[in-house]
Amino acid sequence: MITVSWLVSVGVACAGPDPTVTPTLAHATLYMEVMSSATSDSVETSIPKVHVTASAKAGNAGRAIPSAEVRTTSRPQPTPTSQPSASQLSDINVYETNITLSSYPYQSYLRERADGRHNFKIVWLDRTAYNAASPQPQPRVLGAVVLENDYLCLTFLPELGGRLYTCTFKPSQQNIFYQNPVLKPSYWGPLSRDENWWLAVGGMEWALPVHEHGYEWGLPWSYQVERGDDQASIILRDSVAKGRLRAEITVTLPREQAYFVVQPRLVNPTSQAISCQFWLNAALTLGSASASANTEFIYPTRRMIVHSTGERGLPGERQMMSWPTYDGRDWSRYGNWRNWLGVFVPEVQEGFAGAYNHDTELGIVRVFPPEAVPGLKLFAFGTDFVSRSEYCDDESDYFEMWAGPCRTFWPEDDVSVEPGQSLTWSEVWLPFTNIGGIDRANTELIAKADVQGVQVNLGVAASRARTIELCLEWNGHAFHQQWADVAPDLPLLTHMPLPSEASFPGVLGVHLQAEDGGTLLEYTRVISL
User: What range does the domain containing 30 cover?
Assistant: First the structure.
């Protein structure tokens, strides 16, 4: 048995000094001592100290840092105005509530016309009348639907395009998504500049039937909730019309898992084939109020196609650029972006992509079938972007992870849905913490390994509580084996020396197995000094 000091990120609301919490984890006992002089009146500016000790039956458990300062934030958050009693499904709660957001009064200036090609309603903003009214933000109450298990809490806003608004990773009380403090109509979208009103709300939106954000990201969607013994799902629908393409998004939260499953579905009930664009778009900050310069983008590709950019020195639209390094700059690190850039992965080879915030130690992985969903896009603003006031009032920003069956936004990559047919796929979004990044990922595990000097550092995050066996190899020869207990709230971070005869460059092999000997995750990395 090994006893280590373990770092976790916690949300603390102290009513008095020295509160003590002792939760129980799978195969481990976790002790946290939170020390703070804060009172209930000063918690927003308190800096509590968190000391954590974990004992596991096998292997190093957790992150070997004895203590940490955890700063709470005073940034305004959406305010729940009611919370009915939850419907308990084992350890899955489902309930409806209301949240109050600050919103500019754009709704009074929305107008409608028809899109004859897709038979969709186009809602556009009368920008002239809106600006003439000198609008100011006001409180706005929105209905919300919440799905919650032991590890995740998902909040949906059916009135705003059925979006998944928040995903809180409960072990660290961090939200993966961007949350704009105000709903403010921007000039962006598929219409003309003066008609567009896309809201940079944050969360995950559903974009169809045209490029960019589509037409329905801000309109009301219907929903229903399905309950089972081991999961709960919300089914979001944009329409029940028979004369147009319809979208149906099912988001499922399994019991005892730290991921959610997204299953988009396009249905063509008409007698003609319909070509369209269809994407899901996640606006993320990974635990920060604004995108951190220390965010790392993990897109397993060696080149990207430029969609658009304000960055000087980069290739133009539809041109290729190398990835992650181009012209001596590492574009996988957000701190190296100066202005906006949108890029598509031209040929998706791996079934995962993600990002990691090295300030908050919060990451996200998307696991998907690349043959069904070849569209993979990344967008971010860059540190010198000067037009943030067009979508927010606090100069915050975010990055976007796009995914869909279309390879790009360009018309030649539209997908066609045949009469009476549907298009669907299923993918998993998995938040995790405290392992330093992503090398490889699937729905079971996420691993990150690096070599510093003659020491190997390995981090492993899990989607559920389990025991794993890890084996490390150097140039095909095993040099370390270990059993470890891992869970969403118990990531593994362990260190071991390389073999004394190791030389560089070399190949590091990582093999992670289940208790029954089945392979969970394995890969190799070439390591150079």
Answer: 2-69
Residue 62: closest CA among 172, 199, 150, 207: 172
Phi-psi region of 346 (alpha: psi -120 to 50; beta: other; left: phi over 0): alpha
Sequence-separated (6 or more) residues with CB below 8 Å from residue 116: none
Whether residue 145 sits in one domain with residue 177: yes
* DSSP secondary structure, 114-169, as one string: EETTTTEEEEEE-HHHHHHT----EEEEEEEEEEE-SSEEEEEETTTTTEEEEEEE
pTM reported for the whole predicted model:
0.84
Q: Sign of the CA dihedral 309, 353, 364, 259?
A: positive
Q: In this structure, are residues 438 and 446 in contact, taking their beta carbons and an 8 Å threshold?
A: yes
d(C-alpha 438, C-alpha 86), whole Å = 35
Measured between alpha carbons, how far is residue 237 from residues 149, 168, 226, 451 in Å? 24, 24, 14, 48
Per-residue pLDDT tens digits for 353-402: 999 999 999 999 999 999 999 999 999 999 999 999 999 999 999 999 99
Supply 138's token pair. 């006001």
Q: Supply the pLDDT for residue 370.
A: 96
Please say whether the beta carbons of 392 and 291 come within 8 A: no
If asked whether residues 199 and 317 sit together in one domain, one would say: yes
Q: Is residue 86 part of a domain?
A: no
Residues of the chain with pLDDT under 50: 1-77, 79, 81-90
Q: For residue 268, give the 3-state DSSP assignment.
A: coil
> In sequence order, what DSSP letters do the residues of 320-373 get, joined into one string?
EEESSEETTEETTBGGG--S-EEEE-SS--SSEEEEEETTTTEEEEEE--TTT-
Instruction: Judge contact between 403 and 373, C-beta under 8 A.
Output: yes
205 plus 262 within the same structural domain? yes
| 274/357 same-domain check | yes
Would residue 449 count as lying in a domain?
no
CA distance 49 to 254: 33
The CA radius of gyration of the chain, in Å to the nearest whole number, is: 24
C-alpha to C-alpha distance for 149 and 164, rounded to whole angstroms: 16
